[in-house]
């Protein structure tokens, strides 16, 4: 049985990924900052007779990340799949964010994920198998001005993933990104609410405007993002390494 750790597994895309991996027979460890919410999410996932564990951990806290990896090693003997998924930072323009907010966002989106990868990947290489998947955003390829921290830092994550993909490839470890587009989560609702308020528009009007730019005509379901992550984490994706899989209903305009 493979062991998978999924960041932000209590809700949204992270929870859908955990559900998909658990359904495939993986032992899944979900992490998050709030014990009660996390344990409730794990209980829901266990309803499918899956082996799911809740592990309170803050990706932005170095000590917490190290403790989480030590716990996984102690209880399960190592990690086979690492899904680096974190909630988005507060919205804001490129010059609207002060140093403190940039540092906080950097710990959450860049330094925290890289820290976990650094802790997990040598063990994966030693065992001859590993899958690392960074969940990013299509804003990396088609920047959104009011999501500056996400655009800048997830662009850095994408570059880091490319470099990491070369490090242990010969040992059976792959590193890829899933760039998700508009997805039906609380995060999307929050972003659209902020935009509607700033534009003095109703939420439904702004939602319709946003969907009009998506050829598929709708936002993704979290399960659709999870399917892409699960594929990259599978044996079938052994020769896919260092790439970005865009899941956005055709919205991104670049080739």
Question: What's the topology here?
Answer:
Elements: E1 3-7, H1 12-23, E2 27-32, H2 35-46, E3 52-56, H3 62-76, E4 81-84, H4 99-127, E5 130-137, H5 148-167, E6 173-180, H6 186-199, H7 203-212, H8 222-232, E7 244-247
Helix pairs in contact: 1-8, 3-4, 4-5, 6-7
Shape: globular
* Low-pLDDT segments: none
Count of DSSP H/I helices? 8
String of helices and strands: EHEHEHEHEHEHHHE
Strand content: 15-25%
Query: For the residues shown, what is the average pLDDT?
Result: 93
Largest sheet: 7 strands, parallel
Strand order of the largest sheet: 3-2-1-4-5-6-7
Strand tally = 7
CA distance, first residue to last residue: 38 Å
Radius of gyration: 18 Å
What structural class should be given to the helix and strand makeup?
A: alpha/beta
> Share of helix among residues?
40-55%
Protein name: SDR family oxidoreductase
Family: Belongs to the short-chain dehydrogenases/reductases (SDR) family.
Pfam families: adh_short_C2
InterPro entries: NAD(P)-bd_dom_sf (IPR036291), SDR (IPR050259), SDR_fam (IPR002347)
Please, could you describe this protein's structure?
- It is a single chain.
- With 255 residues, the protein is α/β, with parallel strands linked by helices.
- The chain has eight helices and seven strands; from the N terminus they run E-H-E-H-E-H-E-H-E-H-E-H-H-H-E.
- The chain has helices at residues 12-23, 35-46, 62-76, 99-127, 148-167, 186-199, 203-212, 222-232; strands spanning 3-7, 27-32, 52-56, 81-84, 130-137, 173-180, 244-247.
- It has a seven-stranded parallel β-sheet with strand order 3-2-1-4-5-6-7, sandwiched between helices.
- Strand 4 (81-84), helix 4 (99-127) and strand 5 form a beta-alpha-beta unit.
- Helix 3 (62-76) packs parallel to helix 4, helix 4 packs parallel to helix 5 and helix 6 (186-199) crosses helix 7.
- The longest helix is centred in the middle third of the chain and has 29 residues, at 99-127.
- The model has no long low-confidence stretch (mean pLDDT 93).
- It comes from Streptomyces hokutonensis.
- It holds the Pfam family adh_short_C2.
- Belongs to the short-chain dehydrogenases/reductases (SDR) family.
- InterPro entries: NAD(P)-bd_dom_sf, SDR, SDR_fam.
- This is SDR family oxidoreductase.
């Amino acid at each position: 049985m493979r062991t998978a750790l999924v960041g932000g597994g209590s809700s949204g895309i992270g929870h859908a990924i955990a559900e998909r991996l658990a359904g495939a027979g993986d032992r899944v460890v979900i992490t998050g900052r709030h014990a009660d919410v996390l344990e409730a999410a794990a209980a829901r996932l266990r309803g499918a007779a899956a082996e799911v564990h809740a592990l309170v951990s803050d990706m932005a806290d170095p000590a917490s990340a190290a403790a989480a990896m030590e716990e996984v090693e102690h209880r399960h003997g190592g990690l086979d799949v690492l899904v680096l998924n974190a909630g988005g930072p507060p919205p804001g323009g490129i010059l609207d964010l002060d140093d403190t907010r940039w540092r906080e966002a950097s710990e959450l989106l860049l330094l925290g994920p890289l820290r976990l990868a650094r802790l997990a990947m040598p063990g994966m290489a030693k065992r001859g198998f590993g899958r690392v998947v960074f969940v990013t955003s299509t804003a990396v390829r088609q920047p959104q001005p009011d999501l500056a921290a996400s655009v800048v830092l997830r662009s850095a994550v994408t570059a880091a993933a490319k470099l990491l993909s070369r490090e242990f490839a010969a040992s059976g470890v792959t590193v890829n990104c899933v760039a998700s587009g508009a997805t039906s989560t609380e995060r999307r609702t929050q972003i659209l609410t902020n935009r509607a308020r700033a534009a003095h528009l109703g939420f439904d009007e702004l939602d319709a405007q946003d969907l009009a730019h998506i050829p598929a005509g709708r936002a993704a379901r979290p399960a659709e993002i999870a399917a892409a992550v699960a594929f990259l984490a599978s044996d079938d994706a052994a020769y896919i390494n260092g790439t970005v899989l865009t899941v956005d209903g055709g919205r991104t305009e670049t080739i």
